[in-house]
């Protein structure tokens, strides 16, 4: 084997190692789990802007799951959401779920606001207490409209 072929094999191996490393890193960042046990809960939101399949589910700022399904309920016109929570994390059955924002320019995530009940949700249960996403544009419009009312008086 000549020096050229040896160099090509080494460079190809390095590229392959970098690609595998990137895939492992991407899997960790996106929360792709190879065999992590999770259970699913459901919630219904008036507005689920910015939430899609794969959106983080967080408890106390820590990612504990992800949104696994979202669709429109044609009877109630609400966003029916299915999300997973890692096994071992017991969510009290009086907890609330809210669509929160990471900031003005950040994305949205689903936040679990734990209650104080000694009883916990079972897999497949529905979280009754929800708060949908808040529209920044809607808030600005209310602020502007409020200012105009004050100036008109």
List keywords for this structure.
153 residues; alpha/beta; 2 domains; 8-stranded mixed beta sheet; 2 helices; 33% strand
Short description:
The chain has two helices and eight strands; from the N terminus they run H-E-E-E-E-E-E-E-E-H. The protein has 153 residues and is of the alpha/beta class. It has an eight-stranded mixed sheet, with no helix packed on it.
The largest beta-sheet arranges its strands as: 7-1-4-3-2-6-5-8
Radius of gyration using CA atoms only: 23 Å
Distance between the termini: 90 Å
The structure class reads alpha/beta
Instruction: Name the shape in a single word.
Output: elongated
Model regions low in confidence, pLDDT < 50 over at least 5 residues: 149-153
The total beta strand count reads 8
Sheet with the most strands, sense and barrel status = 8 strands, mixed
Helix content: 25-40%
Order of helices and strands: HEEEEEEEEH
Characterise this structure.
The protein has 153 residues and is α/β, with parallel strands linked by helices. It has 2 domains: 1-30; 38-135. The chain is 29% helix and 33% strand. Strands 7-1-4-3-2-6-5-8 form an 8-stranded mixed β-sheet, with no helix packed on it. A hairpin with a 4-residue loop joins β3 and β4. It starts with a helix and ends with a helix. The relative contact order is 0.17.
């Amino acid at each position: 084997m000549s020096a050229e072929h040896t160099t090509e094999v080494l460079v190809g191996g390095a590229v392959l190692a970098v690609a595998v490393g990137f895939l492992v890193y991407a899997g960790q960042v996106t929360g792709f789990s190879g065999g992590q046990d999770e259970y699913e809960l459901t919630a219904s939101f008036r507005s689920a802007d910015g939430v899609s399949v794969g959106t983080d589910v967080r408890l106390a700022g820590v990612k504990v799951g992800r949104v696994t399904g979202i669709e429109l309920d044609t009877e109630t016109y609400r966003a029916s959401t299915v999300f997973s929570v890692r096994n071992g994390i017991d969510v009290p059955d009086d907890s609330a779920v809210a669509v929160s924002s990471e900031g003005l320019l950040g994305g949205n995530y689903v936040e679990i606001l734990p209650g104080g009940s000694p009883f916990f949700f079972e897999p497949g249960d529905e979280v009754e207490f929800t708060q949908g996403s808040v529209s920044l544009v809607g808030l600005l419009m209310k602020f502007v409209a409020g200012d105009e009312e004050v100036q008109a008086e």
